[in-house]
Amino acid sequence: MISERRKKLQKERKKEFEKEHEGERVRVREKDRREREKEVEKERREREKEVEKDRREREKEVEKDRREREKEVEKDRREKEKEVEKDRREKEKEVEKDRREREKEVVKDRKKIENDKEREQQHGDQTVREMFVDHEDRVPVKLEENGAVGGPEPMDISTTSTSQLCGIPSSDVTILEGHTSEVCACAWSPTGSLLASGSGDSTARIWTIAEGRCKPGSENGPLNVLVLKHVRGKTNEKSKDVTTLDWNGEGTLLATGSYDGQARIWTTNGELKSTLSKHKGPIFSLKWNKKGDYLLTGSCDQTAIVWDVKAEEWKQQFEFHSGPTLDVDWRNNVSFATSSTDNMIHVCKIGETHPIKTFTGHQGEVNCVKWDPTGSLLASCSDDITAKEANKILLQGVVGVDGLSFHNLKLQGNPSLLMSTSASVPNAEFSTSAATINNTSNIVSNSDVTSSSSANLWHARHLKHNLLIQALLLLFLQPQHSESTNPSSSASESVSIPNSIPVNTHPMQTRSKSDIHNPRLHPSLFLTHSEPKTVKQALANKDWLTAMQQEYDALLKNHTWDLVSLPPNRQAIGCKWVYRVKENADGSINRFKARLVAKGFHPVHGFGFHETFSPVIKLVTIQIILTLALSYEWKLFQLDVNNAFLNGTLEETVFMIQPPGFEVADKLLVCRLNKSIYGLKQAPRQWFDRLKSTLLQFGFIGSKSDSSLFIYGHQVDVVYLLVYVDDIILTGSSATLIQQLTNRLNIAFSLKQLGHLDYFLGLKIKYLFNSAILMTQSKYICDLLHKTHVTEAHSISSPMVSNCNLSKHGADVFHDPSLYRSVVGALQYATLTRPEISFAVNKVCQFMASPLDSHWTVVKGILRYLKGTLFHGLLLQPASVKNPLAIRAFCDADCASDVDDKRSTSGTAIFLGPNLVSWWSRKQKVTARSSIEAEYRNIAQTFTELTWIYTLLTELQVSFTTPIWSMKQDTYLHDLREHSKEIYTIRWSPTGPGTNNPNHKLVLASASFDSTVKLWDVELGKLIYSLDGHRHPVYSVAFSPNGDYLVSGSLDRSMHIWSLRDGKIVKTYTGNGGIFEVCWNKEGDKIAACFANNTVCVLDFRM
């Protein structure tokens, strides 16, 4: 019993001990757990401290780098400002130096004049004798030889002869005496107070006419005249008679022509600069061109000669007339018109061996030809008692603008139409013959056009747009011949335009229909360097980490977002990092670019965005601007906007998650976007709107033809700015103005100034030695060949065989349509600089839905051709005299070349000057029922493109028109028949569009031997006034500079000044000799007249 109790007690004690021991173990384990938790917490806090410390260090480094960059930017900005200020001061110094030099020259000239006056007073009589031709050299000339009325007695300027109400008093007349024979010609210098006169005494004289009121003849001393002797010693002076003279545009040189067949050029100091000898007969007329580098002369030897004044030699002789050349007149700096006794008018161009136009409408000698102030109308007058006006549009040659010449555009292939340009603009040349892309030859024919028996005022009117449409519709409705592809059509059926374009009804071939449910994924065809796919991979590389940090800093600097809590019922869109290696044109690495992109495909229209459209510059616009820049010798600059989309302000409220790898504070916070960011659908539009508004504030004008082209005008300078998203091209007439605008843009946006245009949109710009550039895509094509594994293939000499007939029907379905589409799409971009592959690429593009193996074979052939011509490209050259800045279009179309739907293929190439600027090869949208319909459809498309180019060039301040003319209208525009005797001369008024008096209508004045002057309304071809105040033939008329008055001089010894408002005489003057020529000075306050009594009179004109 006792032992059992003892055992029981021992057992209970043991249980109690084990229970107590177990509790101790639990306490120990709990203690250990708590200690471990403390250690873990301690380690976590230490790690957090280290992470925070690292983060702060990174932020300090980033902030330090940012400050250093800002310092560098500020330093660069200050250096640029210093350079600009330095340049400004240097220019001011140069201007001040030039001003002082001019002042010194003025003082020196004033002293010289004073000394000359003193010397003249001391040696008056002796000086007078020296200024006149020696008496022993004189040959008496009878006034009757020139048909003059009156004698050599002095003019009567007494009050009795001017007692009429409109008579000019003698106090307003200066008589210039000194010539010893009749004075045949006179002309005011365009700049200054110099008057030139030419006489039958073998001399020309330069008179200095003081400003202000005229002096009587007795007060006018010989000090104010320089004698230009055309002969020395005893000889027959009549062979040296001065027949014509003309000042150059600057008024620094005077050209004279005489009976000895020589043209002479004199300085304003009376020095003979050069003698031009080539003609074999008397020179009847001569003219300077506006630029002043060429002198044009017409002679009795039936020729006209263009002289290079600088080289002092003849440049080209034009031997087209069969009779003496009576008159010449420049249209621009390189083209001109000539008239002759052979009743013909030739329009010629320097460098051409045949006339670019010939008019044969007159029935008598063509005495005079004159271009209107804008060069769009040519007037002529003849002994057949007619004055005529013809359309310049009919000229198949040169038209000039500011020294540039342009060819006309002619539509060949259908003789019922002639398409051409007008006025002072680039004309175009158009052909429907087979077009070869690299053919730049001039295809305009030089056939003469015979007009009726009236002279032509040759005019260029711009036809209304509806007239153009009617003409094109007429072409479709009335084809001249038919090669019908429809067997059911008959010759009696009228051809009409389809009411609608037929819908393509063939079933779409999708991937599933081709049993391709999981197509192979093809990487980008343009990547030659590995790029990270995840943030983790990017953070492991120092270069990509730096790029991400720079992008993140830029986002924070632009205050792109605010961290906020996501409101209820709103969703935050995602974002990701996109990595790209930016390469140079040679394939070397430019920089590593990391960009934070929003996943903008999540928002729904109307909730996350509204408007999304954003324009980009057209390639045609780029090539036109490059052509103009090369022709005008302008520099091309390139800019890049840093983080362009971040400058756009969002109109909608958009939430986005925090950037991966750069989460700040609570991860539950989201980014409420203040600025647009890459990836948002509306981001491009917001950026363009911001850029456009900024440019408009700077004074730019947006182009209506291309929304991404902006034009800035400042005085005589102009700047063109082209935008393609964030890439900008700048060019213009002033590099200083471009730099100023760039500095202003750099203040508004962060820019990279990349210097001269070098690499743009994957196009390499290579500058050549002859001021030309070569646009290539060698790197782009090389990457394409590498990705398609064609680098080892043999090259071929043609992108496509000539007899390649591809069809969509076949059993050899290509195994990977996705690859086909990606490669053909890349080839489409390659056509930007390789127009010769346009036809082949367009052909393979027609089989995107279901390509066959035969189609892929053609694609590989194009790639092999590109491999052999890797460094070929598009050549852009400046315009020249031989290859002027002209619009020329070539178009062609085949007939039913497509074997599947029998549609035709169109091809067009449009040139601006020597450069190809627009081209295409495409299948027509409808089936043409004849070859002529296919041709006309392509003509309509080409004309649409030409109209757009015309509008663009007009906005670029290259103004021109492009009407359509029937060959039946290839005659004079107006036949002006009112005179009863021969018309001796004609003159245009300085009024109308393109002149200094644009609000006045253009008027033509004709002077005749019937003693009348007729004023004509050019637009209507009707007589306005018949001015009948003279009693004898009227030899000369001249309009005042403002176009309000007309002066006429007659052999009845009277000079009348007429008001063009009412056709009445307002002033008159009568002398003692017939008047051969009258002219106004540039201010319009003085009139000069040369008389048969050996004098020149200068009259004050005041109303």
UniProtKB/TrEMBL annotation:
Key word Transcription regulation present: yes
A biological process from GO: regulation of transcription by RNA polymerase II
Enzyme Commission number: 2.7.7.7
Subcellular location: Nucleus
Compositional bias (Polar residues): 502-511
InterPro entries: DNA/RNA_pol_sf, Ebi-like, RVT_2, WD40/YVTN_repeat-like_dom_sf, WD40_repeat_CS, WD40_repeat_dom_sf, WD40_rpt
Name the record gives this protein: WD40 repeat-containing protein HOS15 isoform B
Native source species: Glycine soja (Wild soybean)
Lineage, opening ranks: Eukaryota, Viridiplantae, Streptophyta, Embryophyta, Tracheophyta
